């Protein structure tokens, strides 16, 4: 709306209303009406601007809080993820060490079991040799008795004893048979088989049996002791292996829990990042919009203030020349043209007002 144009319209209406008020007075009234209208418009804009400011404050505060909440959540989630990742790495390293310890102990069990089996086989071999030797001793006593009764020849005796010596050599205890071998050599040398010689052979066979029986008993006791030691050691190692297996299960479950925590924190990080970006964009948009409100309000307020100032000057101008305005009932612009022809301050002011009447406008 062009302010000065409205004033001119008011001048056009003066002639139709001269019956009640003079044209100058009507023009002043019309200017006052325009000033009031601008001020009312400013009041309405003030009210709108107040609402806008309140809503901007609420929106900006809300978006800033949302951004800060997202940043806080992002920070916490990043810290939690970092701690979970560190714990995950440590637990994984522990799990590898536990598995390594378990493998070492299982290898140890396998080693001592193999060694125990080897010793058991050696024991059985020694027991077999001793039992074979005892059996040959029993046979030697019988053939010696037959030789004493002349029912067996010396050749049969020497043949049987040769088998005994061969078995003793195989068993590694040939030295035990040396006294018996000496008696047999004497018999083969002089051919005299006396009762004393026979008794000497029997005595040596009994002593040999006792030594072998004692060796067998000692060997058996040692084997039983070794079995007990082996089993106790194996049980201790197996207990540790069982403990390590349980620890592995706990570590595996803990690692899975940590991985779930890491995944959860990553989801929170992604969500918080999206929330921060989204609300930051909305905050920027709201800030731009509120700045636009401020610019519009300030520009409009400034424009209205200048319009009021202009209208106030025009009103003062009209009030000072009311009688002159009353003389013009036809074209209202004649008064401006009249003053424009004068080389005075009033002429310059009239030219200024005419220019503003052509150019000044207000939305």
TrEMBL record:
<protein>
    <submittedName>
        <fullName>Uncharacterized protein</fullName>
    </submittedName>
</protein>
<feature type="signal peptide">
    <location>
        <begin position="1"/>
        <end position="16"/>
    </location>
</feature>
<keyword id="KW-0732">Signal</keyword>
<keyword id="KW-0175">Coiled coil</keyword>
<feature type="coiled-coil region">
    <location>
        <begin position="198"/>
        <end position="225"/>
    </location>
</feature>
